[in-house]
Amino acid sequence: RLPKEPLVIVPVEEIGQYGGTWRRVAIGISDCGIIDTRLTGEGLVRTNVDGTQIVPNIVKKWEISEGGRIYTFYLRDGMKWSDGVPFTADDIMFWYKDIILNKELTPIVPSWLTSEGKPVTVEKVNDYVVRFKFQKPNGIFLWQLCYDGIYSKPFAPAHYLKQFHPNYVSVGELDKKAKDAGFDAWYRYFSNRNSWQNVDRPVLWAWKVSQVTSTRVVCERNPYYWKIDTAGNQLPYIDKVTFDIVQNAEMVNMKALSGEIDMQLRHIYLSNYTLFMENRSKGDYRVLMWNTAAGSDPMLYVTQTVEDPVLRKIFQDIRFRQALSLAINREEINQLCYFGLGKPRQASIISQSPYYDPEW
After folding, report:
1. Is 77 within 8 Å of 4 (Cβ atoms)?
2. Inter-residue contact 53 to 107 (CB < 8 Å)
3. Which stretches of 34-175 are assigned E, i.e. beta strand?
4. Helix (H) or strand (E) segment spanning residue 11
5. pLDDT digits (tens, 9 = 90+) for 168-200
6. pTM
7. Rounded-to-integer distance, Cα 209 and Cα 198, Å
8. Which of 212, 218, 167, 161 lies closest to 191, judged by CA?
9. Which of 70, 113, 117, 226 can bridge 65 by disulfide, Cβ–Cβ 3.0-4.6 Å?
10. 82 and 224 in contact (C-beta within 8 Å)?
């Protein structure tokens, strides 16, 4: 079930045990979509744990040439979709030719895939090598793949989606399929079939959605997942991920307090920190603090293009904005809103960044 060169993941604490269900809570079906992105979304490349460098993921390696204008990616031979069909360069070419370059599916090509106003050119070298070519050097492309490449995935299961695309099915047949499914256009039907909520769509993620109802979403282990731990065990360890759907975030927090959630950050309020700490034994859970990579939690922007000419002159004066910043009692906010756990600071990049300057 594994490719010839699976990706080896070093466990954070220890080699895991197989089995069990990861219970989560969401406030709507769309809220469960993080299974497709933040929880188990896969990009061609990814950052390491602390975000300081880019490492292989779906691709095993890459080469950069012509000063960052051309990127050549090498896929993992033998890697498969969740239905057992091989994942190859054809899945990237289908995404490029039939989705990105199709005006009905993609009226405007995302900016991160353009250069000099023109879309990137993608070429198939062989079944396991593809080449991305930009009009001019694009030095941040790999970093963009780590973010945009998770949300706007540069690949798609061609063997499955071709049956919903006019380049492979007659227009008459496709229109009938779309109408029978309740859609007024083939591209809306295609997008529906290409959604994470479609239980028939093959995926590359650790868990594939198997059930979607108004009250619950269930995801089950992908038997062809292409990662292993240092002992050679195929990942993931956990059998299922479930999302119980509730009305609001307050109910999420109540379920956390009663021990009905196994691990979750989403919708967990810091304002309940004291309550969570007091109920740890009763709910049988741990409270872990997680540092975000954001430069600041709240920020204040002054509208420098305000219509009032007097206010505009004041707001555009950097001395006013500096004075406003100095007048903010950050420590008081920290004590009142963050239980003293925050760090008063300016809204700048985090100190772990190689581009950080203490002066900021």
Report:
1. yes
2. no
3. 45-47, 54-56, 59-65, 70-75, 114-115, 118-119, 121-126, 129-133
4. none
5. 999 999 999 999 999 999 999 999 999 999 999
6. 0.88
7. 8
8. 161
9. 70
10. yes
